[in-house]
Amino acid sequence: MPGGFSPPPGPAEAGVERERSGGSRTAALARGVGVPALVATLIGLAFVVVFLAAFHAAVPHDLPVAVVGSQQEVAAVTDALEERLPGRLAPRPLPDEAAARAAVRQADVYGALLLTGPQPQLLVAGAHGQGVTTTLTEAFQPVTEDLQVEDVQPLSPGDTRGLGIFYGAFGVVLGGFLFGINSYQAAPKLPLRWRVVSILLFAVASGLLVAWAAGVLFDAVPADFGVLALLVGLLALAVGAPAALLLRTIGSGGTFVTSLGLIILGNATSTGNLPAAYLPPWMEPLAGILPPGVAVRALRGASYFADDGVTRALWVLTSWAIVPLLLIAALDAVRRRRRTGPPGA
What we know:
The chain is α/β, with parallel strands linked by helices. 60% of the residues lie in helices and 7% in strands.
């Protein structure tokens, strides 16, 4: 078969799987019947448990917000918020409206309450998603009267639900997962230099095509095309390389580990639906470590928030891409040395 694909398995034959299992009927049934069902069940269960743990009753924890007003007004609002919603918002004072608008537009805070005008005004950034806007509106309305809400950083017209970045990142993560699996299934003994060429080809193609689809075709991610393509390409590398490493080190078990770590935990903590402050405490740190969360923050920053998170993403995603490939090279070198023996042996 061309292109590294395996041929179709053909018709079933009695006894073949038993022979592949060393003549043991029990082993053949466990490998052919039990293992596929067990792995699929565990992956599905993990997906349900992780996503329900993250979002079944999502509320923020210390979500940064700003308040502009007199010292007494700021203290009164802070006390009222803490009494009604203990631990959910983290208000801080800002000197004036200009500082508040800048902080919201740069994602330093998720919203800002202005108490300096004739009536209270709440500044929000719709680019964070409707969930954040709803949270802030419901939090501040009971502690102020005649609250006016202004969206100072709205979503792109091509992404009215705010899901473009999440779905774009999810597709690339899924593609990286499949790359890692197919790379070793199609050519398990391929020299590393050609495997690197393959993963670079995947990353470049993904970066350009996904950037074109998300940024040009649908106008859902309004970042600069070059920045968008670069971040998407790095995300592809940052998922494909670890997936390849896991397949190289633990074989087919790497499929389960990659599914749990990158597909399930990675996407649950990607902040594509809600900011990291809404995640349970044990999941929140993963948003700044795993490739999906790092990439989504950078894509949102490049699109709406003065490049927030972009520089950090370049370093983190590059590390996720390079370190696994170096480990594969080291493992291959050790294996070759063991086979040939020490020099002069």
